[in-house]
Amino acid sequence: MIIIDGTAGEGGGQILRSSLALSLVMGEAFRIENIRAGRPKPGLMRQHVTAVEAACAVGGATCDGLALGARDITFRPGRITPGDHHFAIGTAGSTSLVLQTVLPALMMAAAPSRLVIEGGTHNPAAPPFEFLERCFLPRLARFGPQVTARLIRHGFFPAGGGRIEVEIEPAPLRPVDFGGRGPLRGLVGTVLIAGLPGGIARREIETASTAPGLPGATWHLRILPPDLGPGNTLSIEALFDDGSEIVTGFAERGLGAEALARVAARRMAGFLETGAWAGPHLADQLLLPLALAGGGGFTTVAPSGHGLTNAEVIHRFTGRRIVFTPQADGTHGVALA
Predict the structure, then answer these.
(1) CA angle centred on 208, ends 202 and 210, rounded to 5°
(2) Which residue from 8, 10, 3 is spatially nearest to 280, judged by alpha carbons?
(3) How far apart are CA 92 and CA 294, in angstroms?
(4) Suppose 74 and one of 31, 49, 309, 320 were both cysteines; which one would form an S-S bond, judging by CB atoms 3.0 to 4.6 Å apart?
């Protein structure tokens, strides 16, 4: 049995999700201790419990010690069961992160699957649905499996109530060497707002549209039904020959509209300056398929705490080591050693 220290690396839920995903794929039991011990609310939160429950349902697994607030659990995988699955988080916990937990096993399963996941779709602690749909899944398809996702209902923090539907056509994984991203073809900004004054969205667009480093961006405003709110995000999508990258700012108490827009604009402008193929979120999520495919690579910005932690968990389960190599242009190459 593999023993995982939940305080290692960034010490958050990524350790748990990656361990669950790899346990299902590799058929290796594990025990994780000190789960999220350094966080303001240590132990398992609702979305983490749902992720474990989803892994148990998909993988015929058992889990000892599973409960809200639990700091130690033991997980024993069984047989993967593709098909129809429905998971409800019950809070604004991220639907994307629950999907991240079970997707590796289902995209390598013996038959297709259809998932319904309810919870948060636009949560500041995770990439939003648009990132999943437009950035991650199109890149994942190059490894072989075909995964499509539909947003049925938005779920903002803190209310939640969102719903996504995901269809998975499994396939053997093949290594992919991603090349350069190609020239910038356009920038598209989108503001979502629900149950809040429209003036907030207009101020965000005005601020972001005049920010340096974002030339010629096209802006869209989507006013959602008030009962979906309160909720507000500003996303900026950079379109390249080789796909897109999305940066999103999330409204939160005490953060003004102008500040939200400036932060998102600055993050996107910074990414455009690097020339990297993948931003930090995309890089983090591609590490596991890269390792399971047995090869491939890409360039990214400086590795995040999530990415380094993910790489270490991958090494513990697979014996394969992912290396981040600084390049002369300031990017980092990502590949299997």
Answers:
(1) 105
(2) 10
(3) 35
(4) 31
Give the active site residue among 48, 122, 154, 306: 306
Check residue 136 and report its DSSP letter: I
- Give the whole-angstrom CA distance, residue 66 versus residue 146: 32
Nearest to 135 by CA among 21, 236, 215: 236
User: Active site includes 306?
Assistant: yes
pLDDT at 11: 65
Task: Please tell me the total number of residues recorded for the chain in this structure.
Answer: 337
Read off the pLDDT of residues 281-297 as tens digits, 9 standing for 90 and up: 999 999 999 999 999 99
Distance (Å, whole) CA 96 – CA 130: 10
3-state secondary structure of 75: strand
SS3 216: coil
Please list the residues that pair with 187 across neighbouring strands.
Answer: 238
Q: Enumerate residues 6+ apart whose C-beta is below 8 A from 184.
A: 238, 239, 240, 272
Number of H helices, E strands in the chain: 9, 16
Give the homologous superfamily in CATH for domain 184-273: RNA 3'-terminal phosphate cyclase, insert domain (3.30.360.20)
Confidence of residue 42 (pLDDT cuts 50, 70, 90): confident
In the chain, domain spans: 2-178+278-336, 184-273
- Answer CATH for 2-178+278-336 from 3.65.10.20, 3.30.450.180, 3.30.470.20, 3.20.20.70: 3.65.10.20
Q: Average pLDDT of 102-126?
A: 95
The Cα diameter of the chain in Å comes to: 55
